[in-house]
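Pilot study result, target chain (354 residues):
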Amino acid sequence: MIAGLVASLSACADAPAQSRPPVTAAQPAAAPIFTAPPGPCALRPSCDTPFPKQSKRDFRHHGSSFLSSTQHARHRGRDLFLLPGTPQWVLGKFAYGLSDKDLKDEDIDVYLLRGCGASWEKVGTYRTSEDEGAHPVVHGVADRGGQIFVNLAQVLPGGPLGVGRHRIKMVVAGDGTSADVFLEVLPEGARIAVTDIDGTLTEKEEALVGDVLTGGHSATHPGAAEVMRALSGRGFFLFYLTARPHWLEPRTREWLALRGFPPGIVHTSVTSTGRMGEAAASFKMGELGLLKTATGLAPELAFGNMPSDVAAYASSGIPKTFYYKLDDDARGGVKHDDYRTLLPSLGELSAVCP
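Predicted structure:
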């Protein structure tokens, strides 16, 4: 049943706009406006400096040109939390269409917005992998073909990235389609808060289905964005962790921004079908373990709504957990039915600005 649902969502997502059901829900043109300051710390930068138009080049292979002209691009990357002095990987996957057909042996131009500043710089051109396993696993991401693995710490003319938030754009040279990733190089003493998305932040657990079928953007729970902004405003780095399919990463980031959530690191599953139930719990445990391995850090706060979230957070030893309308055992976590009731206590947390 899960596979069939994902296939239906994929098919609709790839369908021409005119063949999709009409959108009936009202769609706001911009993120909501929050008048109250979230806290003493500035939110993480949005990194929205416009990207300059680039000239396209010919594909290296005729098959790639045909693929690009007949199928919808589904490129994506992998955001990362990093520590200074460690490898700074850019991980990108390039594929097209419902079958997630890999773009192999083609050039990808990589650009950097260092520190979310005012100007883009070109890092270099890299070729997508042809065979599975051509590159070793990095941060839990295996090479399945059609991917690039670039260690910025080894190739940047200006030296490795410093502490701060950085945006990378990976552009397919043959057609100009692209994917973005964000790298957050953490300062000493960084604090992280992790949150699930579906049902935890979205108004319904299954809201994603309607979003993909209609092209719309579901609502969020009242107060959810304010809670996350309050945490960011007290210096917490936000980790949006969802077991959605990997190809929904760009849409997930778009939804978070549209609904007023502060910038953070976004992780979906690394599969085309996503994860549910015990598989979702296992995936999230693995992601939190990878975070610990890469940074030595575990989140101090966590938000969820399902037993899979409880299992993942409890096994990871997160000290403070909050669960929206959870019927099951919270294992010492706080159950609530309104995010706005959490604001007073979260506002008392100490502020440690990056």
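One observation from the pilot: Residues 128 and 147 are 5 Å apart (CA to CA). A full batch analysis is planned for the follow-on phase.
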